[in-house]
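User: quick one, sequence for these tokens?
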């Protein structure tokens, strides 16, 4: 009789626990379906894996070029568009491109496209200049490396002297645009935010670009830069102003002010000094 009562006692307790567990489970399911879950977003800068370049060289065991190719492919697959503005040479993409340069110093595309991605997509201007400069150590007379590096130095970093020297170096290059020499000569007298020169350089930059994303980004910059110049002219009351944006649409006059049909973010020519 004592044993039977003990069994009944435990059966009731077990039933109560089971019932409470079912109630809690159903409540959790109801809450899960009725209330939105908080999203957790981790930036690529915080989640990217970067291994010390000297350690990579040591561990490559004679397969440096193969390892450089693998890191290059992985970096392109993981590439993001989040801007990096700390100017401390610590962006994850810069560290990847720097490691590739250590493993394979003759990897030309790493310097050419890596530098452009850092400058145009990531806004990592110092990182871009480091990669361009590393490439120019191995390809000092290369037209594209000198051109992109010169543009980055002059118009983005505000380093007029070095930027002008690199652009001047390729003014007579066989690949140079017909008006590059003319623009380089104008830079001898320009150390300010000259919209006209920057617009002409951006147009040449777009013509020479073969990457769809970079071309799209450059076209947005061109739109912003031209619209800034034209709208400033129109709203100041000058008579000799261009009436169409870079996409061929006419500016509109609304609420007593000239405006563009398309919204844009102001293009800053000298980002470092700003």
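Assistant:
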């Amino acid at each position: 009789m004592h044993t039977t009562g003990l069994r009944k006692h435990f059966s009731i307790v077990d039933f109560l626990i089971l019932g409470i567990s079912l109630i809690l489970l159903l409540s959790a399911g109801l809450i899960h379906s009725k209330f939105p879950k908080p999203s957790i977003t981790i930036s690529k800068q915080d989640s990217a894996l970067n291994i010390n370049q000297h350690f990579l060289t040591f561990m490559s065991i004679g397969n440096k070029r193969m390892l450089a190719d693998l890191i290059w492919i992985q970096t392109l697959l993981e590439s993001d568009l989040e801007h990096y503005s700390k100017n401390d040479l610590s962006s994850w993409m810069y560290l990847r491109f720097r490691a590739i340069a250590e493993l394979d110093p003759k990897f030309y595309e790493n310097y050419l496209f890596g530098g452009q991605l850092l400058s145009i997509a990531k806004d990592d201007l110092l990182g871009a200049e480091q990669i361009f400069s590393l490439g120019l150590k191995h390809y000092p007379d290369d037209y594209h490396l000198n051109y992109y590096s010169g543009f980055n130095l002059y118009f983005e970093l505000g380093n007029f002297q070095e930027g002008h020297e690199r652009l001047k170096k390729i003014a007579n290059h066989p690949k140079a645009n017909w008006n590059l020499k003319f623009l380089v000569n104008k830079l001898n007298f320009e150390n300010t935010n000259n919209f006209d020169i920057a617009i002409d350089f951006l147009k040449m930059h777009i013509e020479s670009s073969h990457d769809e994303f970079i071309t799209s980004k450059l076209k947005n910059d061109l739109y912003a830069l031209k619209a800034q110049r034209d709208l400033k002219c129109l709203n100041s009351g000058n008579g000799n102003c261009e009436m169409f944006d870079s996409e061929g649409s006419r500016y509109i006059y609304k609420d007593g002010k000239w405006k563009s049909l398309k919204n844009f973010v102001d293009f800053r020519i000298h980002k470092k000094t700003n």
